[in-house]
């Protein structure tokens, strides 16, 4: 029996994401890579050479969090920091040759997961789902951008004891 709350889109997307993360993590652990680290590797495979700030923004994580992940991936020999040729103060992050087979294997795991999750849908339904989710995602991004442009009111300072007069 489905209750109304179990059919809410926010509940459904959260539940699907949670179960998918669990499934992916169980398979990726065998490679010694966490899902957040895989996100770093796959992002680097798709955008070679971003700065740490650019990569943090792409992944929507704090720079210090990303720095720690990059440190661990660098220690494992999977990424390297290279000075930007145009500005030696800037470091760009690159995959190493050692990372390629891991990225390919984890991408295969992700593809298998997606196929497993979407198995009940035919190709037209999959296309419709992707289109609808993209519309919702883009709307959320636009709303976030719009809200970030609205100036925030500066709170007035609390009155001091000397300012309070009865």
Shape: globular
Which sequence of strands runs across the widest sheet? 1-2
Please bin the fraction of helical residues. 55-70%
The end-to-end distance, rounded to whole angstroms, is 63 Å
Major sheet description: 2 strands, antiparallel
Compute the average pLDDT. 87
CATH third-tier fold name of the domain at 8-116: Arc Repressor Mutant, subunit A
Looking at the overall shape, the CATH architecture of the domain at 8-116 is Orthogonal Bundle
Secondary-structure element order, as H and E? Answer: HHHHEEHH
Put simply, the count of helices is: 6
Low-confidence stretches: none
Which structural class is indicated by helix and strand composition?
A: mainly alpha
Radius of gyration: 22 Å
How many beta-strand runs?
2
Q: Work out the strand percent.
A: 5-15%
CATH superfamily of the domain at 8-116: Winged helix-like DNA-binding domain superfamily/Winged helix DNA-binding domain
């Amino acid at each position: 029996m489905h209750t109304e709350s179990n059919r809410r889109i926010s509940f459904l997307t959260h539940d699907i994401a949670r179960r998918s993360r669990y499934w992916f993590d169980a398979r990726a652990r065998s490679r010694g890579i966490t899902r957040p680290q895989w996100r770093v590797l796959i992002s680097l495979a798709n955008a070679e050479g971003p700065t740490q700030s650019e990569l943090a923004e792409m992944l929507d994580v704090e720079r210090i969090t990303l720095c720690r992940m990059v440190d661990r991936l660098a220690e494992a020999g999977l990424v390297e920091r290279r000075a930007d040729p145009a500005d030696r103060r800037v470091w760009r992050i690159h995959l190493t040759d050692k990372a390629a087979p891991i990225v390919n294997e984890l991408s295969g795991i992700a593809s298998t997961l997606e196929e497993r999750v979407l198995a009940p849908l035919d190709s037209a339904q999959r296309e419709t789902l992707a289109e609808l989710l993209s519309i919702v995602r883009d709307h959320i991004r636009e709303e976030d951008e719009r809200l970030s442009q609205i100036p925030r009111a500066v709170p007035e300072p609390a009155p001091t004891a000397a300012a309070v007069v009865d």
